[in-house]
Design a protein that fits this description.
Elements (H helix, E strand, L loop, with lengths): L1 E8 L5 H11 L3 E9 L5 E8 L4 H9 L4 E7 L19
Antiparallel strand pairs: 1-3, 1-4, 2-3
Length: 93
Amino acid sequence: MNHTLHIQLSSCEGAVIRALGLIERRGFSLNSCSVSEADGNGRVMKVSVTSTRPGDLLKRQLERLHDVFYVELKPAVISKLQPPGIRPISRRI
């Protein structure tokens, strides 16, 4: 299952590495990660992960880190792919 998290971190050294390390150690596979500067209050990190474990579990574990101010778990967007269909061919003879 895919999970997307928005994490607000302090701007101290190693905060991003500690958060990413926790994600990996807890068995979540990292799909994408982007980090940007916040409005003078540290950094904002957007992370997309995949795991069979619940995303709420990762959210609670990240909130325990000293450098983490806030974690928001975004609902997973499930996209159903339509199987390729076969178009009927009408023949007129």
